[in-house]
Amino acid sequence: MRTKDERMLHQESIPDHVDQSSSTDLWRLRALASRGAHSKPVKRPDGMLAVHQERVTYTFIMGSEVASIHYDRTRGEIFFKGHNLRNMALTEAQKGALMAMKEVLSADRDGSKLLSDYSATLGRLIADNDKGEDFQKEGQKKR
Question: What own/partner pairs with CB < 8 Å and gap ≥ 24 does 40-48 have?
């Protein structure tokens, strides 16, 4: 058990930008300290990044609901809210969230290892998605 002086010293070591009433902020601070990382805040939307070997999942707030992006390098697939991008017509907001994940990956030590492959896969899938939308629009014009 810590003494009163140790608790006060601990309180002083917490940066001002950390909300001490939020267990998530304290958890992030503790995780950063255990990695030996800087305790400066990373500019990204509220979210959590999980990296495991060849896979990464980013869960975040989009509008008024929770969304997630999952990337599997071995399969070369990206999923948005559980749906494969190959089978979706993407909105601009969804494309923006997918592009923002590049910044999140680059800010993370383990995530940065997947950044180049994620960018290439995303570019290919968005190009295929845009071609599919153009093809659908041409089919509707002919009717």
Answer: 40/15, 41/17, 42/107, 44/100, 44/103, 44/104, 44/107, 45/100, 47/104
